[in-house]
Design brief:
The chain is an alpha+beta fold and 401 residues long. It has helices at 5-13, 18-30, 38-42, 46-58, 78-105, 126-139, 152-169, 185-191, 241-257, 267-280, 285-301, 309-322, 356-372, and strands spanning 33-34, 62-65, 71-74, 120-124, 143-147, 173-178, 196-199, 207-211, 215-220, 234-238, 259-260, 326-333, 336-342, 377-388, 391-400. It is elongated and about 75 Å long.
Length: 401
Amino acid sequence: MPINEERLGKMKELGLTDYQARVYLTLLDLGVSKASQIPTLSRVPRTRIYSTMNQLHEKGLVEIIPESPIKYKPVHIEDFLERVAESHRQSADEIAEKKDLLMNEFAVRAIVEAEETGRFEAIYGRRNVRDRLNRMYEESEKEILSVGTVQSPIRIVRSRLPTIEERFNAGVDIKYAFPINGSNRDNAQILSQYADVRNIGLSLSMYYLVIDSKQALLCHPMPSDESFLKGDDIAIWTDDEGIAEALRNIALSVIEQGQDIKVVDYTTPLLQSTKAYIDLLGLKSGPIFDSLAGTIADELSSKFKSTTLIALINELSTYWKENSMGELKIVKKKPLTIQVSQFFKCGAKEPKEPHIFCKFTRLLLNGVFVKKLKGKTEIIKHNCLGESGGLCHMSFVLKST
């Protein structure tokens, strides 16, 4: 159907801007589309397509398909209409309840001229912080630097990926540093297509962003979860170039000390190459890997100080995380069961029996338990849970005497 003023008017009445309405109506005709297909039909400038798509995604009208290049799919308008109606009902009720308070609060307003630079702003609420971050990304011309939390890669991919791709294509140098583990690794890998992504050992409760050494934002996310819409975040934004430059230098130092995400997963190709070479020689790889696991367990044991089972598991969990090996945690107390998720990839979704790499992990951990706890604890059962989310998952049942 044509994009005419009548249809555009109806969409604007629902709260969409002219660009948002044009892009959405175009998608309804095209279906799943690349960004490059939209400008001509929608008559929206090419430079505004990504930000408009991001806005429509936030409204629940567009689904982002994280392929290369990114594709977009229109979402049926029914749920959006219900949210708009409910939002209007709630807004009307809230205004009626706060009428007297608002009249008093906004009766007189002083006129203050804002300085052009060196400003500071306090920003409250995740939605408001997100809007400011969106503007900062869109205004970037040379460089984007960010040091974040464990949840940062997930929120960034969900809320800002089209803009990141746009800035990357515009030649902006993008660098990130996060603590990377099994929960956020897939999203960090998606970002690594457009940015230099580093794994750091810092477990931060806040994140910050620096744009072109001209503006910076520091934010404490509350709660620090995966949502990019709901939260009582507190942020400070400034365009004081002295502070922005200082934060840029700190960010660069952190990023340079981090580990490139592209080299984190070195274990799988190393073990696969070793196994292939052993097989090529006509030898049985099983006994050799068993011996290798025992040797590594002896060396690894010296790194731990704990002499009780739970304390040792906690030390192993920390070691797993700090060395970007994945995750190790207790999942059941009776019988005591630990789950290990790591970057050994067996390729099996529902394995019938443990892969040689899974057995390697069992022997390694069992060797640590036996040596540190003087033979009082050992692994008695092994369950291979297969590969998913870029990790190989397995669980072990422990028995103490």
